Amino acid sequence: MSVLVNKDSKVIVQGFTGSEGSFHASQMIEYGTNVVGGVTPGKGGSNHLELPVFNTVEDAVKRTGADVSIIFVPPAFAADAIMEAAAAGIKVIVCITEGIPVKDMVAAKNYLQGKDVTLIGPNCPGVITPGEAKVGIMPGFVFKPGRIGIVSKSGTLTYEAADQIVKAGLGISTAIGIGGDPIIGTPTKDAVELLMNDPETDAIVMIGEIGGNYEAMASKYIRETGNKKPVVGFIAGQTAPPGRRMGHAGAIVGGAEDTAAAKMKIMRENGIHVVESPAEIGDAMVKALQEAGINA
């Protein structure tokens, strides 16, 4: 079992024929992801990468049975692309686009309320279930199959965490890059909950960063579960000055609770194994599994 995507996922690419969509779609296909087509308005009826191109997501869903979409659409149109995918019945939407206006994302998030759809991103690296499906821009070779889940705000640190886990002799069940924008579809707590409820995930790596309260909410949820699965945590931005955005649009210290130190304190208080450096993630996970008596 996995969460969000697997070998049975039927994936379409919105922005299929653009340079970014073309490159990453070909990488996903090479990885073995079941990409069934793509969407570029005005190019419906043509073929691209030996797959059909459709004018609308609705057409693509009707013709291919697609249930997952990945979005490589420019920022001005990306929120509309999210809503179009949801309206067409797509169940998992992965939005890679960076720089979507906050006002547009407010409208998109409101539109998704009450619908049977999960949005990952925007401004994210995507989701990967190693050996089954890569719906994103991550380097697939880093990820090996296993029983450790990853939830991360940072794309680069998602790959670093996976590399550390693999070098420790473990593997990944599903890695979810949730995105670093102020408004995203799936906050840390919701992504952690997916992995907590996955019977083939034994433990979780949770990577956060300065800004917002996602990590605090997730930490409290983990304690409420009785810490049923070990969690190793890391917070990026430990040296960031207050009031200055660091990397992601949502990574800005706005108050005392937004700092890396405050978040790490909350995580420790809720039973999470906190590391000071990403280089310690693998060793910390091995130790956490041993303490929990789990042979992963």
Automatic annotation (TrEMBL):
Catalyzed chemical reaction(s):
succinate + ATP + CoA = succinyl-CoA + ADP + phosphate; GTP + succinate + CoA = succinyl-CoA + GDP + phosphate
Residues that, per the record, bind substrate = Y159
Query: Would the keyword Acetylation turn up in this protein's UniProt record?
Result: no
Q: Which pathway does it operate in?
A: Carbohydrate metabolism; tricarboxylic acid cycle; succinate from succinyl-CoA (ligase route): step 1/1
Q: What class of enzyme is it?
A: ligase
EC number(s) for this protein? 6.2.1.5
Gene3D superfamilies attached here?
A: NAD(P)-binding Rossmann-like Domain, Succinyl-CoA synthetase domains
Tell me the GO BP annotations in alphabetical order: tricarboxylic acid cycle
Active site residues according to the UniProt entry? H248
Classify the source by domain of life.
Bacteria
The record's annotation in Pfam families points to:
CoA_binding, Ligase_CoA
Query: Which UniProt keyword terms apply here?
Result: Ligase, Nucleotide-binding, Tricarboxylic acid cycle
Q: Which GO terms describe its cellular component?
A: succinate-CoA ligase complex (ADP-forming)
Per its record, what are the GO molecular function terms?
nucleotide binding; succinate-CoA ligase (ADP-forming) activity; succinate-CoA ligase (GDP-forming) activity
Say if the entry is tagged with keyword Ligase. Answer: yes
| Domain CoA-binding, first and last residues per copy | 4-100
Q: Give the residues the record marks as binding CoA.
A: T17, G18, S19, E20, K43, I96, T97, E98
Q: Which PANTHER family match?
A: SUCCINATE--COA LIGASE [ADP_GDP-FORMING] SUBUNIT ALPHA, MITOCHONDRIAL (PTHR11117:SF2), SUCCINYL-COA LIGASE SUBUNIT ALPHA (PTHR11117)
Q: What is known about its subunit structure?
A: Heterotetramer of two alpha and two beta subunits.
Could you say which protein family the record assigns here? Belongs to the succinate/malate CoA ligase alpha subunit family.
Described purpose of this protein according to its UniProt entry: Succinyl-CoA synthetase functions in the citric acid cycle (TCA), coupling the hydrolysis of succinyl-CoA to the synthesis of either ATP or GTP and thus represents the only step of substrate-level phosphorylation in the TCA. The alpha subunit of the enzyme binds the substrates coenzyme A and phosphate, while succinate binding and nucleotide specificity is provided by the beta subunit.
* Protein's recorded name: Succinate--CoA ligase [ADP-forming] subunit alpha
Ranked from the top, the taxonomy reads:
Bacteria, Pseudomonadati, Bacteroidota, Cytophagia, Cytophagales
Q: What would be the name of the gene that encodes this protein?
A: sucD
